[in-house]
Amino acid sequence: MKRDGLSKRDRIILNEKFRYLVQVDFSRAIKMHLLADPISKHIYKLRAKGSVQLRPMLCKGPINNDTEYTLLLGAVEKGGKLPAGSELQAENNRQMVIQSLSRRQRHEPIT
User: Fold this and answer.
1) What whole-number distance in Å separates Cα of residue 102 and Cα of residue 105?
2) Which of 14, 53, 65, 74 could hold 60 in an S-S bridge, CB 3.0 to 4.6 Å?
3) pLDDT digits (tens, 9 = 90+) for 32-86
């Protein structure tokens, strides 16, 4: 997720959510509402409330579905809805990652 347009507070909130996400079991993240139920077969959205409803979209894996997540797309939810086309873009990004695993990068805090 790009930092452009995010306040310092929003960046801190996202970094904390990402940090916490890697520490908890996937099913627990769903039960705790850290992650929303899947919005498609493989795509989840992280719930982060800052000055706006931050909804980074991610998937489990794709190499190890038990121990990793892949951030696919940064999104902001308005009126309970994601931007038009964001689910398709997230899925396209997921397919690109699967096809080109060398492009993967480890998450660094959003500065």
Assistant:
1) 8
2) 65
3) 889 988 899 899 999 999 888 999 999 988 777 877 888 899 999 999 899 999 9
Q: Name the percent of the chain in helix, strand, coil, to the closest 5.
A: 35, 20, 50
* DSSP letter assigned to residue 62: S
Residue 16 to residue 108: CA distance in whole angstroms:
12
Burial class (CB in 10 A: 0-12, 13-18, 19+), 55: buried
Helix (H, G, I), strand (E, B) or coil at 77: strand
Phi, psi of 73 (to 5 degrees): -165, 135
Residue 68, judged by CB atoms within 10 A of its CB (0-12, 13-18, 19+), counts as middle
Q: Which residues pair with 6 in a beta bridge?
A: none
Cis peptide before 83 (omega within 30 of 0): no
